[in-house]
Amino acid sequence: MHPGSGMEGRRIRRLRRAELPLDTVELARYLIGKTLVHDLPKGRISGRIVEAEAYPPGDSAGHAFRGETPGNRSLFFGHGYAYVYFTYGSSFMMNVTSERAGIGAGVLLRAVEPMDGIILMEHHRGTTKLLDLARGPGRLAAAMQIDKRFDGIDLCNKGPLWLGAAVGTRGPIGRSVRIGITREVDRLLRVYERENPFVSGPRRLRA
To answer: In this predicted structure, what is the pLDDT of residue 7?
Structure first.
């Protein structure tokens, strides 16, 4: 059996909303080492979250900065929901919403370390390069089969896409400037598991 085929029966506990910090920056740090799970008819896909970026209230680089719109409504649901959007004309991005209901903010998931369903991830991504399966937010969404259908889904409730507790020991956490933005570029709001090869970005932003 191929490692990560989704048939191992790995036990992952679903996170409760009460466990998620209400503060956006704290939530980003908290999510490092936790799991993202997508239960598909063909099997389970899961990965350890190893990189994330915080977009707190009032952040001009965040999608909620100009207020609630039909496109970003899920950012205002409260903490623990998915906010999924399409960007660059080719990629979906997934965020975990943060703060209290009515306050728009979220944490962009930038990379996961594949655990279950690696064969499925390879099929979704069209590559067998393990390190590149879900390194970067667009690749993550493609590997995990996350698209606009999951925008607004409750990640702490019963459903196919959810957040799970940590599996294994988390390594030291680093922080850096965010990647790929043009506003508030100097804020140290990107967090990652240091020296993890599945983290995206240049080497100097992974050490």
So the answer is: 39
